[in-house]
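Hi all, posting the design record for the shared folder.

TITLE: backbone redesign
STEP: 1 of 1
STRUCTURE INPUT:
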């Protein structure tokens, strides 16, 4: 007599376990790859951050982006030394006027009277670029010295060069006292600042690369900047 064996029941869970393990390994590898790529990108970003202030060469004008210590005073020194014919201080708080800035630099009264313009409209690096473009176009400048903090310089150059591809930009990085006193990797605050700036830099790079967005956050119409009547920055004057 032939006995028929009962068919074995298929355990679905056994087949799903290798798949789950494979997916888990892929997820881990993906995370590791992202960490490695992010770390390599951060090292690349650090290589673009100037380690010290370098002597500037002459340009038609000078623009300083407010937000860090000693940026404005360094820009005034460049103007006084004749590196540029005129200075734009971009991103001045609406409640601060010429007199407020003059009080911090009393020895530069004559320069403020003749050669300094204030921009109260810019609220971030992108709008700094927009207002600087208007100012430079209005004055017919073809070259600018850009004064900002060293950690901010890579992103500032991305935004400014995107807004003004036909203008020669000369970076002048300001290095704060804290950066001189101790390495950034020994300070948690400095590391967080650099990581934050790295992310903003990547966003700016991607936006410029994949483009179609203007400096004000709206699509460009294709018209040149001069086609729109520029909002004149307040010209410094002493009454």
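Okay, here is what came back for every position:
SEQUENCE:
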């Amino acid at each position: 007599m032939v006995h028929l064996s009962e068919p074995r029941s298929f355990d679905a869970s056994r087949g799903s376990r290798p798949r789950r393990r494979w997916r888990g390994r892929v997820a881990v590898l993906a995370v590791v790859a992202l960490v490695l790529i992010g770390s390599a990108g951060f090292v690349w970003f650090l290589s673009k951050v100037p380690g010290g202030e370098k002597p500037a060469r002459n340009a038609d004008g000078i623009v300083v982006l407010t937000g860090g210590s000693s940026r404005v005073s360094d820009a005034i020194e460049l103007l006084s030394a004749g590196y540029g014919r005129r200075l734009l201080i971009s991103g001045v708080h609406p409640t601060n006027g010429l007199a407020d800035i003059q009080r911090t630099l009393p020895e530069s009264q004559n320069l403020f009277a003749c050669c300094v313009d204030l921009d109260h409209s810019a609220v971030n690096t992108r709008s700094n670029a927009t207002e600087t473009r208007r100012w430079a176009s209005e004055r017919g400048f073809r070259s600018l010295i850009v004064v900002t903090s060293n950690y901010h310089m890579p992103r500032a150059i991305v935004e400014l060069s995107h807004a003004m591809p036909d203008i020669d930009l000369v970076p002048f990085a300001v290095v704060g006292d804290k950066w001189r006193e101790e390495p950034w990797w020994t300070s948690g605050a400095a590391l967080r600042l650099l990581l934050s700036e790295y992310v903003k830099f990547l966003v700016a790079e991607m936006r410029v690369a994949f483009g179609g967005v203007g400096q004000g956050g709206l699509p460009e119409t294709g018209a040149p900047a001069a086609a729109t009547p520029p909002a004149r920055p307040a010209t410094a004057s002493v009454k």
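COMMENT: Helices lie at 12-48, 71-80, 98-104, 109-115, 125-139, 153-163, 177-181, 188-210.
Let me know if anyone wants the other runs.
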